[in-house]
Amino acid sequence: MPMNEQPPWGQKKKPTGPEDILAVLIQKIRDAFAGGIGPGAPQDGQGGQQPSETPPNLLASAGKIIAIVAALFILQGVFSCFYTIKPGEVGIVLRLGKYSRTTQSGLHFKIPYIEELAKVDVESVRKEEFGFRTRVPGVNTSFDRKGFGMEALMLTGNKDVIEVAWIVQYKVNDPVNFLFKVRDVSQLVRDASETVIKRIVGNMDFDYVLSNRELLAASAKKELQSQIDRLQCGITLVTLQLLDINPPEQVKPAFNEVNEADQDMKRLINEAEETYNKVIPKAGGSAKQITEEARGYAAERINRAYGETNRFKAIVKEYEGAEEVTRQRMYLEAMQEILPQVNQVYVMDKNQQNILPLLDLSRKTSKEPPSANTK
Question: Is residue 234 within 8 Å of 174, Cβ to Cβ?
Fold first, then answer.
């Protein structure tokens, strides 16, 4: 057997892990307080312990305990002086309870037992829900409304009861104010948000609240951010969204009937306006057409009358200058206009006893001469 090896029955069991080391350390402390009597102390044949010849050295035991505690204290200080800040977080270091500095992501050093560290997540979006709670987030998100109805109930400006469910999302922009200015920032956001939403809804009518949720949400977000900035909470709002606006369950049937009647009224009004837009412009166009035609006819008759009057005046003037010539010219012009329209002309002569028909050889006859039959 080699010299550096011991038989199994004489080999001492060495601690293999931190738990074993701690157990051995606790056992040594117990032995020191018990006066050095341990499980390996000599005993008499009747199972009793033999009194030690020398009294236990209490000072030595106390010194060992102090050394062990000091070693643990120093070891803990060494391990606690280094810390790591994850991405998206900042570290707030306090020196003797007073703010010292802000550290970004990475490995950093602090003075043990003098400086304290608080980590704040500044990238995550925090949210507060009103009138419901998200139970299972994800693609198929499930919500729970039971027990949260009082958060959503509020009165409108015309004294109607309405349920408004909304959500507020915010991020930390000033971690120092977030930690030390307000004790509970989330509760402050809830209280301020309820105050703002209920005040805005209480100043509006029921129908206006139902049809203008985007405008109300924008106004509420602006006012809520102003209050948060005044209180120096160290947060900034990401969004404020009104998710669901409905009447209470007890009055929903009556509300649906009112909505149906309102929709029917709007439909009838739209149909009437459609008919109006079809008939009235058409009638107006027809009236304008008739009016313009009448004006045109009146202008034509007036202009023609002026023309006839001027022509008559011109003829009168010529007649006054040469009566016989003008009378003969007027007669010839009248005959020139009338005779082409006459098929048969009869010449009346006082010296003739019979009527003499006029044969107009210049006019083409409509009848063709009969053709000779040749055999």
Answer: yes
Structure tokens at 194: 């309820």
Beta bridge partners of 98: 95
Side chain identity, residue 236: T
* All domains of the chain in start order, with CATH: 82-121 (no CATH), 126-247 (3.30.479.30)
Q: Please name the amino acid found at residue 125.
A: V
- Asked if the model's pLDDT at residue 15 lies above 90, the reply is no
Beta bridge partners of 240: 168
Instruction: Look up residue 7 and give its two tokens.
Output: 């038989």
The alpha carbon of residue 85 and the mean position of all alpha carbons in its chain are separated, in whole angstroms, by 35
Whether the Cβ atoms of residue 240 and residue 221 lie closer than 8 Å to each other: yes
> How many CB atoms are closer than 10 A to CB 170?
23
Residue 61: per-residue pLDDT: 64
- Residue 39 — very low, low, confident or very high, per pLDDT cuts 50/70/90? very low
Q: What six digits make up the tokens of 281?
A: 């412009």
Beta-carbon contacts of 86 under 8 Å, excluding residues fewer than 6 positions away, are 105, 119
Amino acid in position 255: F
Q: Lowest-confidence range among 6-15, 224-233, 310-319, 320-329?
A: 6-15
Q: What is the phi-psi region of residue 96: left when phi exceeds 0, alpha when psi lies from -120 to 50, beta otherwise?
A: left
The CA-CA-CA angle for residues 60, 65, 66, to 5°, reads 95
135 touches 143 (CB < 8 A):
yes
Among 31-35, 43-47, 268-272, whose mean pLDDT is lowest?
43-47
Measuring CA to CA, which residue among 202, 201, 191 is closest to residue 231? 191
- Which single residue is written with the structure tokens 């050095």? 36
Residue 43 φ/ψ region, left for φ over 0, alpha for ψ in the -120 to 50 degree band, beta for the rest:
beta
Residue with tokens 């010194």: 63
Q: Which helix (H) or strand (E) holds 369?
A: none
Can you state the percent helix, strand and coil of the chain, rounding each to 5?
A: 50, 20, 30
Query: Is the entire prediction scored with pTM above 0.70?
Result: no
Q: What are the CA-CA distances from residue 281 to residues 275, 287, 291 (Å)?
A: 10, 10, 15
Tokens of 99: 């703010």
| Buried/exposed code over 306-335 (b: 16+ C-beta within 10 A; e: otherwise) | eeeeeeeeeeeeeeeeeeeebeeeeeeeee
